[in-house]
Amino acid sequence: PLEMSSKKPVPFLRQVVSVRKKVNRDPRFDDLSGEYKPEIFMKTYSFLDSIKKQEKEMIQKQIKKCKNTEQKEKLQQLLNRMTQQEQAQKKQQKLREREMSLKRQRRELAKQGKKPFFLKKSDKQKLELAEKYTELKRSGKLESFLSKKRKRNAIKDKRHLPSQKN
């Protein structure tokens, strides 16, 4: 039996055999789950894209049928969220592909015996911006984008000016 101090009162329910506490582990931060590789993840769960597409179509049909304005608004918000998630996923995929192509180029240069060159964050952003502008120009939305940007900047400039009092 376990020796206990006579100074403390003996607990009513004594633990005779120590029970190992169950440890909850989060697979996102645990090494046992392996390393996260987005390419493998995308390949493994690519079937979810088709399911999401079906759900999106179903929601669109429900919006057309629905007569209740509150319900229609909720469905519209859900549809907007789904489209935004889809766009964000495409953007992420583009970024990943760009990074992979840069890595391939670096490897090729290294094989040729040249020193690897790494772009600064600002240079990467400039390249991304240039690509965005070419994409907008190709789709014909460049002018509207630039006019909106000008308006936004004008509003910001007005805010920083001292207020005029009559």
TrEMBL record:
Superkingdom of origin organism: Eukaryota
Cited InterPro entries: RRP36 (IPR009292)
Skewed-composition ranges (Basic residues): 147-166
Annotated transmembrane regions: none
Gene expressing this chain: Rrp36
Family: Belongs to the RRP36 family.
Keywords per UniProt: Nucleus, Ribonucleoprotein, Ribosome biogenesis, rRNA processing
Claim: Nucleotide-binding is one of the keywords in the record: no
Residues covered by region (Disordered): 83-117, 140-166
Subunit structure: Associates with 90S and pre-40S pre-ribosomal particles.
Gene Ontology BP terms: maturation of SSU-rRNA from tricistronic rRNA transcript (SSU-rRNA, 5.8S rRNA, LSU-rRNA)
Protein's organism: Chloroceryle aenea
Subcellular location: Nucleus, Nucleolus
Record's GO cellular component terms: 90S preribosome; nucleolus
Protein name: rRNA biogenesis protein RRP36
Role: Component of the 90S pre-ribosome involved in the maturation of rRNAs. Required for early cleavages of the pre-RNAs in the 40S ribosomal subunit maturation pathway.
Residue stretches of biased makeup (Basic and acidic residues): 94-111
